[in-house]
Design a protein that fits this description.
This protein has 131 residues and is mostly beta strands. The protein has one domain. 8% of the residues lie in helices and 51% in strands. It is built from 1 helix and 15 strands. Strands 2, 4, 6, 8, 9, 11, 12, 14 and 15 form a 9-stranded parallel β-sheet that branches. The chain has a 6-stranded parallel β-sheet with strand order 1-3-5-7-10-13, with no helix packed on it. It is globular, with a radius of gyration of 16 Å. The protein starts with 13 loop residues before the first strand and ends with a helix.
Length: 131
């Protein structure tokens, strides 16, 4: 990975890496891909891919286009496209995603909602309905 971009990189190249010795406390937002091997507390958002390594600890509201999880998330997770949970993955919170892949021994302790392609329209419709 080059330190500076020259325009020839692949579009899925990692833009931000939070290493194992790094702790982020607060709101972290990126327009590119993120790989986390450290600790994040607060919120973690990207419009691209989010990779959480096996030793990573996330205590945050998480939002990404795609999620590849090997570590632990404590907080609600929203994934626009695909969430892939490896055998070491742990989510303690609610998960919303369009596509879900879960390996044996992965843990989800919360509500899991599979979102159809027109999820936003459905959410708005549900809010309009009388209770």
């Amino acid at each position: 990975m080059a330190l500076f971009r020259d325009g020839n990189e692949a579009p899925n190249e990692v833009d931000t890496i939070i290493g194992p010795s790094v702790k982020v406390d607060g709101n972290f937002k990126s327009e590119g891909n993120i790989t986390v091997n450290g600790v994040v507390q607060g919120s973690l958002r990207t419009n691209h891919d989010l990779r959480i390594g096996p030793m990573a600890k996330i205590k945050a509201e998480v939002s990404a286009n795609n999620l590849f999880l090997e570590g632990e998330i404590r907080g609600n997770v929203t994934v626009k496209e695909k969430a892939q949970l490896k055998s070491t993955a742990k989510i303690f919170g609610n998960l919303e995603t369009k596509v879900l892949s879960v390996e044996e021994n992965a843990v989800i302790n919360g509500k899991c909602t599979m979102l159809p392609e027109h999820a936003e329209e459905l959410k708005q419709e549900m809010k309009k309905q009388p209770k």
